[in-house]
């Protein structure tokens, strides 16, 4: 029980620190939201002095001392009220985030689960068939693929499969004229649009799972109880799957938990290349436009999801493996 | 790299050999190299890395032109004069690739070393002490782990405008040390309860000595692994930041090449090689480090050694 | 186990090798042209890359909002639309205006116009709109009430009484988009109102809206409906250059690398481009700082630059080098002073540059330009991160000044920080664009008026270099009050002389407006020979284009 209480206390403290950091980080950036908006307008032609005054008045750029801003910020966080976005004025931050979240969670979440399952299976296979091509191909291929820069893989897929081949759409989450709804046609359309971004994430993340599972599996295969099981004449397949893999998967489950937590914030570059309307793209827009309210809300959601995933994994691990409780 | 040196230096000063302590430092290093070399994957990695380092060091000799000379035709196809064609601004792509190796190799090694240093210092002390200070470190490390790295990098990079390579190294180190510290901490925790550590503690050795002389040498391979992982992450992070245009776009590196290629729509003009080549180099460099890691794994854990039968 | 190693190595090498071979052996791929896959060919609609989602669209058609959807200005009309290329006004909701004196403007309001819901448009709507932006200054994006003292409706006219003799105020009043009183009088907070069902007077009304695309359809009751040939406008949210080239757009605003090989090549028969100058890109020396406050020093910089090469490197040869007249040429050619040698163009002259630098106290020593203490001259040019064309131009500046022995550093803060640095005078020398409002007075006023030259550290919105000269202020005041064209031209010529001789900015090249057209479905696009509108897709000038297009036969 003390173990859990300890963890909860730490969680609360980390949460507070993260919330505070969320407050400070955007304000450390040089230039104000109005400056960002005006710099954008200035790209389209000269900005008159009146425009500047009007934009500042419209955005309601933060007033008061840092301390006052901080207190009102804490209050609004507690109420889950993140105010109005500067970039998409007068849209509410909450509305923008709720619109973006499902896209990211479904795309990246599903791909993470698929990558974990396939990667782990391939890792088991690689460790079991050590030294054969079944080992070398996934390990070397996985190592190489996981060294691809995300955005580069994305650009290549866009070019070869989307542009030259013309088989897949190159941007967006659904067709130009479609409106999000729960219909078979729309879901099919969305899936079709998700293929390239999903492939990008799969290609670059599969290797990590293969290598992780392979190395823990190899360690486990050397344990005495596995040797004992083998000596008892159990079929090699039974030994590998029932005895070794089941134990070896524990550390990888930890990583899996953390990866799920990182889903929300993990796909900025991919979403940027594919113009995918998820959290990553929204965050990119917020950062480049100095949109404090939007940035704060997104940072908070990303941080909280990672924190919670961490917390759950810690607790589960403490239950599964008592040695780590100290 | 540093950590390997530390452990051998310590051995030089005549620290009594521990349970699996090293006998002769030269022999240890030699054995380490031989072990890595004996792993075929690692061997490929070493060769690849060596090639990239050579490319970086001898860039002025190898490159056919200056990387910033924009006096050639724009968006030219591959030819005898320009093996990989020219960019939209009229620079020679091959020369840019060769000069660009310098930045990636340097950033990878520098960021890898700094991130590993911090990870070792924090991870080991954190794993060893059981006082309130440990909780404080735990708190700080957790904080760094939960803050989304890429967004944090973007904010910092935007704040430290155009610090160039130094800024990128700093950003990568700030966001990259925590995970290494966490891994090293758990290893320290498990070593802490080993007999040789207990023996050292009872013989009255100071905590610092116990941590850095008894425990550290036993984690060499983990630290080296951590270094290569950090260097890989640094190379990819650098490319990502520069691709987003947050680095100094006037320097020639693989990341900025990708930025300019995307910016001038190399795909539209059919110059896909301008996009393909730098990305491939980044991947190959990062792969070479990961491949070497296969050999390093085998250093401390014979089970992971390639070819060893179970 | 030894035999395995060979195999592992081979497989590993094969994986890497195949990719490497791909990298080096293949040549550039010929991209298939799939133009007009999606394009609605002859159903009377026009596909335009005007509005970019980020990445999708939020519904906001509030004409006062800076984050409104771009096509809002295709639905709402101003009193008159000004062609920003030459400053000429075309009447829309007004039929014209007169100035009884330099302090009064009378607009004749068009009769017989209906809002898209059928209600009649009257002069009262105009008065309502101006009173609305007076009551909520945050809506007054043009700053009309900085010029207007009061206004009154007289039958079908609206009379504006100005605060001072202020002829250029007409240009500002002209541009205000007019909203219907019967809708907007009930809007509680016009600032946050997103106006999802716009009722407007213009040629188009909202048709369908989805996050990835919205369409406008022709307003059947439009007062000049006979001039509107396009039945439907289609505005997608994703307009990457790949999309623009491939999907058969009719109209796009985009800087395209190698425009001949990409856009034109996609449909040689129909696709064309027009890149008229839209502003002057210049180096802006901070006149409050040494050595930039020294005219000799600025002259040295000016002579050191090869503007043609800078223009080519920055914009790939699509724009011309800029002269030092302060005018946007050729758009404002009729204003050009005859006294300026060579129409104001300044060529590179290294000897003159070195002589000027010597007068400023910098001499050549070896391959370095050094000050009296023998230290090399170092200057830092500020630009915005991500403005890549400017950056490429500056890299050439860097090389050219480098040849003279000047150590040039480039500082590239994020756009917001760059803009703040300009506002506060927190720079040594910066790159910026000026001009292009269509009004010669506005252009010179923002460039030279000491009213904007606030002390360094306080924010201003124009004259960032902080130029002050009482004589120039007097000239500007005269120009503001001048009603006769000859008189205006004479004063403008004197102002050009100031810019040419005193170098408050060092002009480098004209920034382009990147218009891409296809005449497959519609013809009558503005071109160099028929420059009735700039090619941009935002603000009110598209109204000029949309009322000028004809169906292709």
UniProtKB/TrEMBL annotation, chain A:
<keyword id="KW-0812">Transmembrane</keyword>
<keyword id="KW-0813">Transport</keyword>
<dbReference type="GO" id="GO:0005886">
    <property type="term" value="C:plasma membrane"/>
</dbReference>
<keyword id="KW-1133">Transmembrane helix</keyword>
<protein>
    <submittedName>
        <fullName>Peptide/nickel transport system permease protein</fullName>
    </submittedName>
</protein>
<dbReference type="InterPro" id="IPR000515">
    <property type="entry name" value="MetI-like"/>
</dbReference>
<dbReference type="InterPro" id="IPR035906">
    <property type="entry name" value="MetI-like_sf"/>
</dbReference>
<keyword id="KW-0472">Membrane</keyword>
<feature type="transmembrane region" description="Helical">
    <location>
        <begin position="100"/>
        <end position="128"/>
    </location>
</feature>
<dbReference type="GO" id="GO:0055085">
    <property type="term" value="P:transmembrane transport"/>
</dbReference>
<feature type="transmembrane region" description="Helical">
    <location>
        <begin position="190"/>
        <end position="211"/>
    </location>
</feature>
<dbReference type="Pfam" id="PF00528">
    <property type="entry name" value="BPD_transp_1"/>
</dbReference>
<feature type="transmembrane region" description="Helical">
    <location>
        <begin position="256"/>
        <end position="277"/>
    </location>
</feature>
<comment type="similarity">
    <text>Belongs to the binding-protein-dependent transport system permease family.</text>
</comment>
<feature type="transmembrane region" description="Helical">
    <location>
        <begin position="297"/>
        <end position="320"/>
    </location>
</feature>
UniProtKB/TrEMBL annotation, chain B:
<feature type="transmembrane region" description="Helical">
    <location>
        <begin position="273"/>
        <end position="296"/>
    </location>
</feature>
<dbReference type="InterPro" id="IPR025966">
    <property type="entry name" value="OppC_N"/>
</dbReference>
<dbReference type="GO" id="GO:0071916">
    <property type="term" value="F:dipeptide transmembrane transporter activity"/>
</dbReference>
<feature type="transmembrane region" description="Helical">
    <location>
        <begin position="103"/>
        <end position="129"/>
    </location>
</feature>
<dbReference type="GO" id="GO:0005886">
    <property type="term" value="C:plasma membrane"/>
</dbReference>
<dbReference type="Pfam" id="PF00528">
    <property type="entry name" value="BPD_transp_1"/>
</dbReference>
<comment type="similarity">
    <text>Belongs to the binding-protein-dependent transport system permease family.</text>
</comment>
<feature type="transmembrane region" description="Helical">
    <location>
        <begin position="215"/>
        <end position="237"/>
    </location>
</feature>
<dbReference type="InterPro" id="IPR050366">
    <property type="entry name" value="BP-dependent_transpt_permease"/>
</dbReference>
<keyword id="KW-1003">Cell membrane</keyword>
<dbReference type="InterPro" id="IPR035906">
    <property type="entry name" value="MetI-like_sf"/>
</dbReference>
<keyword id="KW-0812">Transmembrane</keyword>
<dbReference type="InterPro" id="IPR000515">
    <property type="entry name" value="MetI-like"/>
</dbReference>
<feature type="transmembrane region" description="Helical">
    <location>
        <begin position="165"/>
        <end position="184"/>
    </location>
</feature>
<keyword id="KW-0813">Transport</keyword>
TrEMBL record, chain C:
<dbReference type="InterPro" id="IPR039424">
    <property type="entry name" value="SBP_5"/>
</dbReference>
<dbReference type="GO" id="GO:0043190">
    <property type="term" value="C:ATP-binding cassette (ABC) transporter complex"/>
</dbReference>
<dbReference type="InterPro" id="IPR000914">
    <property type="entry name" value="SBP_5_dom"/>
</dbReference>
<keyword id="KW-0813">Transport</keyword>
<feature type="signal peptide">
    <location>
        <begin position="1"/>
        <end position="28"/>
    </location>
</feature>
<dbReference type="InterPro" id="IPR030678">
    <property type="entry name" value="Peptide/Ni-bd"/>
</dbReference>
<protein>
    <submittedName>
        <fullName>Peptide/nickel transport system substrate-binding protein</fullName>
    </submittedName>
</protein>
<dbReference type="GO" id="GO:0015833">
    <property type="term" value="P:peptide transport"/>
</dbReference>
<dbReference type="Pfam" id="PF00496">
    <property type="entry name" value="SBP_bac_5"/>
</dbReference>
<comment type="similarity">
    <text>Belongs to the bacterial solute-binding protein 5 family.</text>
</comment>
<feature type="domain" description="Solute-binding protein family 5">
    <location>
        <begin position="90"/>
        <end position="441"/>
    </location>
</feature>
<dbReference type="GO" id="GO:1904680">
    <property type="term" value="F:peptide transmembrane transporter activity"/>
</dbReference>
<dbReference type="GO" id="GO:0042597">
    <property type="term" value="C:periplasmic space"/>
</dbReference>
<keyword id="KW-0732">Signal</keyword>
């Amino acid at each position: 029980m003390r173990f859990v209480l300890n963890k909860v206390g730490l969680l609360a403290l980390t949460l507070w620190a993260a919330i505070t950091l969320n407050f400070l980080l955007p304000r450390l950036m040089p230039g104000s939201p109005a400056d960002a908006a005006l710099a954008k307008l200035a790209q389209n032609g000269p900005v008159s002095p009146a425009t500047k005054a009007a934009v500042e008045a419209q955005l309601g750029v933060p007033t008061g001392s840092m301390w006052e801003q901080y207190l009102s910020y804490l209050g609004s966080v507690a109420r889950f009220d993140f105010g109005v976005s500067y970039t998409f004025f007068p849209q509410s931050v909450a509305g923008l985030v709720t619109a973006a979240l499902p896209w990211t969670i479904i795309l990246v979440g599903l791909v993470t689960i698929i990558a974990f399952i396939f990667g782990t299976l391939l890792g088991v296979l690689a460790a079991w068939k050590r030294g054969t091509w079944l080992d070398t191909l996934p390990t070397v291929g996985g190592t190489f693929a996981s060294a691809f820069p995300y955005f580069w893989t994305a650009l290549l897929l866009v070019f070869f499969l989307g542009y030259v081949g013309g088989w897949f759409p190159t941007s967006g989450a659904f067709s130009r004229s479609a409106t999000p709804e729960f219909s078979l046609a729309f879901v099919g359309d969305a899936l079709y649009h998700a293929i390239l971004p999903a492939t990008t994430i799969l290609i670059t993340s599969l290797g990590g799972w293969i290598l992780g599972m392979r190395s823990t599996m190899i360690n486990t295969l050397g344990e005495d109880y596995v040797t004992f099981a083998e000596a008892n004449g159990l079929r090699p397949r039974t030994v590998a799957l029932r005895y070794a893999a089941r134990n070896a998967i524990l550390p990888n489950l930890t990583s899996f938990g953390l990866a799920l937590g990182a889903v929300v914030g993990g796909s900025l570059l991919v979403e940027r290349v594919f113009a995918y309307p998820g959290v990553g793209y929204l965050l990119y827009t917020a950062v480049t436009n100095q949109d404090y309210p939007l940035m704060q809300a997104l940072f908070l959601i990303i941080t909280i999801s990672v924190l919670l995933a961490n917390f759950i994994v810690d607790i589960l691990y403490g239950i599964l493996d008592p040695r780590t409780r100290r | 790299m540093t950590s390997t040196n530390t452990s051998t230096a310590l051995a030089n000063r005549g620290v009594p050999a521990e349970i699996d302590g090293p006998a002769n430092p030269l022999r240890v290093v030699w054995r380490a190299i031989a072990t890595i070399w004996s792993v075929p994957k690692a061997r490929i990695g070493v060769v690849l890395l060596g090639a990239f380092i050579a490319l970086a060091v001898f860039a002025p000799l190898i490159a056919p032109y200056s990387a910033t000379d924009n006096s050639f035709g724009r968006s030219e196809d591959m030819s005898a004069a320009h093996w990989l064609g020219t960019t939209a601004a009229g620079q020679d792509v091959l020369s840019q690739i060769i000069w660009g190796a310098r930045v990636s190799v340097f950033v990878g090694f520098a960021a890898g070393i700094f991130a590993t240093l911090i990870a070792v210092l924090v991870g080991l002390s954190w794993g060893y002490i059981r006082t309130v200070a440990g909780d404080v470190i735990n708190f700080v490390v957790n904080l760094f782990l939960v803050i989304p790295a890429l967004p944090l990098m973007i904010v910092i990079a935007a704040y430290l405008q155009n610090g160039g390579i130094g800024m990128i190294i700093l950003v990568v180190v700030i966001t990259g040390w925590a995970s290494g510290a966490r891994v090293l901490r758990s290893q320290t925790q498990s070593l802490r309860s080993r007999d040789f550590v207990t023996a050292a503690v009872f013989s009255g050795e100071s905590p610092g000595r116990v941590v850095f002389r008894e425990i550290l040498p036993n984690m060499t391979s983990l630290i080296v692994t951590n270094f290569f992982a950090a260097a890989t992450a640094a190379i990819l992070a650098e490319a990502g930041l520069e691709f987003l245009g947050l680095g100094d776009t006037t320097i020639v590196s693989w990341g900025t090449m990708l930025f300019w290629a995307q910016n001038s729509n190399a795909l539209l003009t059919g110059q896909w090689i301008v996009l393909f080549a730098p990305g491939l180099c980044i991947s190959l460099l990062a792969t070479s480090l990961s491949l070497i890691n296969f050999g390093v794994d085998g250093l401390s854990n014979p089970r992971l050694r390639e070819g060893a039968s179970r | 186990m030894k035999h395995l190693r060979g195999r592992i190595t081979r497989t590993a090498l094969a994986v890497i090798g195949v990719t490497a071979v791909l990298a080096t052996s293949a040549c550039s791929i010929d991209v298939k042209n799939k133009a007009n896959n999606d394009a609605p060919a002859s159903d009377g609609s026009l596909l335009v890359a005007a509005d970019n989602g980020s990445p999708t669209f939020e519904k906001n058609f509030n004409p006062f909002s800076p984050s409104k959807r771009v096509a809002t200005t295709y639905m709402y009309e101003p009193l008159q639309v000004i062609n920003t290329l030459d400053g000429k006004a075309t009447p829309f909701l007004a039929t014209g205006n007169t100035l009884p004196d330099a302090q009064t403007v009378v607009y004749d309001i068009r009769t017989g116009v209906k809002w898209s819901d059928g209600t009649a448009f009257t002069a009262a709507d105009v008065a309502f709109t101006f009173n609305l932006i007076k009551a909520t200054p945050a809506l007054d994006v043009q700053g009309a009430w900085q010029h207007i003292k009061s206004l009154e409706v007289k039958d079908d006219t609206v009379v504006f009484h100005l605060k001072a003799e202020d002829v250029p105020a007409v240009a500002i009043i002209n541009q205000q988009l007019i909203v219907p009183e019967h809708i907007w009088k009930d809007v509680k907070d016009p600032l946050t109102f997103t106006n999802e069902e716009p009722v407007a007077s213009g040629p188009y009304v909202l048709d369908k809206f989805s996050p990835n695309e919205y369409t406008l359809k022709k307003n059947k009751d439009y007062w000049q409906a006979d001039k509107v040939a396009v039945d439907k406008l289609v505005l997608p949210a994703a307009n990457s250059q790949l999309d623009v080239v491939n999907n058969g757009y009719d109209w796009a605003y985009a800087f395209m690398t190698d425009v001949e090989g990409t856009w034109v090549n996609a449909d040689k028969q129909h696709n064309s481009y027009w890149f008229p100058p839209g502003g002057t890109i210049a180096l802006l020396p901070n006149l409050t700082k040494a050595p930039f406050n020294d005219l000799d020093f600025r002259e040295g910089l000016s002579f050191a630059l090869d503007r043609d090469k800078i223009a080519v490197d920055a914009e790939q040869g699509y724009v011309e080098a800029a002269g030092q007249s302060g005018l946007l040429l050729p758009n404002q050619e009729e204003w050009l002073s005859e006294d300026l040698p060579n129409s104001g163009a300044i060529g590179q002259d290294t000897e003159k540059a070195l002589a000027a630098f010597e007068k400023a106290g910098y001499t050549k020593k070896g391959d370095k330009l050094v000050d009296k203490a023998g230290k090399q001259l170092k200057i830092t040019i500020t630009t915005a991160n991500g403005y890549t064309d400017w950056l490429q131009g500056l890299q050439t500046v860097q090389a050219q000044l480098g040849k003279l022995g000047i150590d040039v550093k480039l500082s590239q803060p994020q756009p917001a920080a760059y803009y703040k640095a300009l506002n506060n005078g927190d720079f040594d020398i910066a790159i910026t664009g000026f001009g292009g409002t269509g009004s010669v007075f506005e252009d010179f006023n923002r460039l030279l008026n000491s009213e904007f030259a606030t002390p360094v550290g306080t924010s201003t919105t124009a004259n960032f270099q902080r130029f002050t000269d009482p004589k120039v202020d007097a000239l500007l005041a005269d120009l503001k009050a001048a009603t006769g064209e000859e008189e205006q031209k004479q004063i403008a010529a004197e102002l050009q002389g100031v810019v040419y001789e005193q170098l408050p900015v060092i002009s480098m090249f004209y920034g382009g407006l990147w218009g891409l057209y296809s005449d497959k479905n519609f013809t009558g696009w503005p071109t160099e020979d028929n420059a009735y509108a700039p090619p941009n897709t935002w603000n009110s000038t598209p109204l000029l284009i949309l009322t000028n297009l004809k169906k292709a036969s």
